[in-house]
Write a structure and sequence with these properties.
By secondary structure, the chain is of the alpha/beta class. The chain folds into two domains: 308 residues, TIM Barrel (Alpha-Beta Barrel), CATH 3.20.20; 114 residues, no CATH class. The chain is 35% helix and 13% strand. Strands 1-2-3-4-5-8-11-12 form an eight-stranded parallel beta barrel. The chain has a two-stranded antiparallel sheet with strand order 6-7. Strands 9-10 form a two-stranded antiparallel sheet. The protein binds 2-acetamido-2-deoxy-beta-D-glucopyranose (4 copies). One 2-acetamido-2-deoxy-beta-D-glucopyranose (NAG) binds next to loops.
Length: 485
């Protein structure tokens, strides 16, 4: 009897193990970005479980928040931690501060059973042209100081220092990749950085966005942003390019070649497609982009100049409702998953191109089923425009707009959407649903078609930090607050 039981038990166990092996398995080299600029954040342990459920083994963070980083303890997920741009001048100027940072944010986590930190990204797109050169002086010295501190801590073989470059650090006058070279104003600096990366055996990290090319250029051939086009749009020496990603990456390869480092390893730090906030940003296009991209990645074909497997971090895991919308309304909608960890479209992380929904975050707690809308009894709309501006200045209204997910609402719908965003962001506080008496709280979901009126999640301890960010937005509004509310 005991023996029979054991056999049954063993068969059961084998079955479970087999299921585990058949479960989600991401393409080797595939990672995701996880940004934290949201008013309400998922508990890091929920996110780590979600990554495991989806077979994703690499993650890129934009800071080194210890609660987030610690959640990876005991997993084999590779972690890339970051140093934000506003701290670069500090680390450039003070080796002591660099040492403290490395001690607290790297070395501390590296013990056995700790966190598998593999990279420190010093600065995020610091040479972006729209920054007007603000970080050009500090970036390289900050990288050097962090590297020195890592070497001193004795972990230089395991933990690599790099910086995340925007694709505008290189250019090609003719659009042909072979004409590629580093941007003239920073050419010498880029050569120094590339030399440093080569010496330290660190990769060149680059962010490539076909979506932005389409967004910024009216005449950009739409299909060139995706991966299914059969016709080549660029011919260059012996190479044919039928998608913008390959052409862009190869422009970098040529720039590296000319700088004397043709074989420097390249890691794509960000690539992805947003789902709202622009006429080309929707779940269908995002699905098409990722499907084409992941199939290409799984094929290990690489690009004409860099055949072979690629290392890539998708952008991004979640929507972030506090991101700056200076580049465009789409900025808050890059998530493959929504703010609450629900997937937005089918995506097959194994690159087989199957119509598969990824595994949602588990154990997410939402606030109550309540919404804030324009009071039905309001017939005089004269107060609506100011109330709407007020709500949208203090919450995310980037789904309102022609061709966006909430682009078909009437004036009242617009107001309701904005009021609800404001109310949810403030944890359904009663005072946040007043708007001079023209709003009220309802228990029936006002969502219409593609326009979802969200309910926020219960934030997990991150609230303090988020309210701090919101606080700075609100300071600017306080004058209006006094006169209006
Ligand atoms: C470690 O990183 C966190 C988050 O990025 C930062 O707030 C903290 O100041 C860093 N620690 C040190 C000693 O610099
Ligand atoms: C860069 O300069 C432009 C034009 O002078 C200005 O509008 C913008 O705010 C500046 N950006 C930063 C980050 O300083
Ligand atoms: C609508 O309300 C505003 C402000 O309360 C008021 O000045 C205006 O006269 C009202 N309009 C109508 C048609 O009642
Ligand atoms: C609703 O708001 C959006 C964004 O502010 C605006 O583009 C649109 O025209 C508004 N719709 C109506 C009917 O007022």
């Amino acid at each position: 009897m005991a023996r029979a039981m054991f056999t049954i038990w063993a068969l059961f166990l084998i079955q479970i193990l087999a299921q585990g092996a058949n479960g989600a398995e991401g393409i080797p080299g595939l990672g995701v970005n996880w940004g934290a600029l949201a008013s309400h954040s998922l508990d890091p342990s929920i996110v780590v479980a979600m990554l495991k459920d989806n077979g994703i083994k690499k993650v890129k963070l934009f800071d080194a928040d210890s609660w987030t980083v610690s959640a990876f303890s005991g997993t084999d997920i590779e972690v890339m931690v970051g140093i934000p741009n506003d701290q670069l001048s500090n680390f450039a100027g003070s080796y002591g501060d660099a040492e403290d940072w490395v001690q607290e944010n790297v070395t501390e986590h590296l013990h056995k059973g700790g966190v598998n930190i593999r990279y420190v990204v010093v600065g995020n797109e610091p040479f972006l042209e729209s920054y007007n050169g603000s970080y050009i002086k500090a970036t390289f010295p900050a990288m050097q100081n962090i590297q020195k501190a890592i070497d001193k801590a004795g972990v230089g073989d395991k933990v690599k220092v790099t910086t995340a470059m925007n694709a505008d650090v290189y250019e090609s006058a003719t659009n042909q990749p072979s004409e590629g070279d580093f941007r003239s104003g920073i050419h010498d600096l880029m050569k120094q950085i590339v030399h440093f990366l080569h010496e330290k055996n660190s990769p060149f990290l680059v962010n490539i966005y076909p979506f932005l090319s389409l967004y910024q250029n009216e005449g950009f051939p739409q299909e060139f942003a995706f991966f299914d086009s059969q016709s080549s749009t660029i011919s260059d020496k012996n190479a044919q390019y039928s998608n913008m990603f390959d052409a862009n990456l190869d422009t970098l390869v040529w720039a590296l070649k000319k700088a004397g480092y043709p074989d420097l390893r390249i890691v794509v730090g960000e690539v992805g497609w947003p789902t709202d906030g622009d006429k080309n940003a929707n779940p269908n296009n995002a699905k098409k982009f990722y499907q084409g991209f992941l199939k290409k990645m799984a094929s290990k074909k690489g690009t004409p100049m860099r055949p072979g497997p690629m290392d890539v971090y998708l952008f991004s895991l979640f929507d972030e409702n506090l991101k700056s919308i200076a580049p465009g309304n789409f900025e808050r909608h890059w998530g493959i998953f929504g703010y609450d960890g629900k997937p937005k479209f089918p995506i097959d992380f194994s690159g087989q191109g199957q119509e598969k929904w990824p595994v949602a975050a588990k154990g997410v707690r939402y606030q109550e089923h309540k919404w804030c809308v324009l009071n039905r009894d309001v017939k005089n709309f004269s107060l609506v425009p100011d109330a709407l501006s007020y709500a949208c200045a203090g919450a995310d209204c980037t789904s309102l707009g022609m061709g966006y997910s909430c682009g078909n609402l009437d004036v009242a719908g617009n107001a309701s959407y904005a009021f609800n965003q404001y109310y949810q962001t403030r944890d359904q506080s009663v005072e946040a649903c007043d708007f001079n008496g023209i709003a009220n709280i309802v228990t029936e979901d006002p969502s219409k078609g593609s326009c979802v009126f969200p309910i926020e999640i219960e934030s997990s301890g991150e609230m303090l930090r988020a309210m701090h960010i919101l606080g700075s937005i609100l300071i600017g509004l306080s004058l209006f607050h006094v006169t209006f509310m």
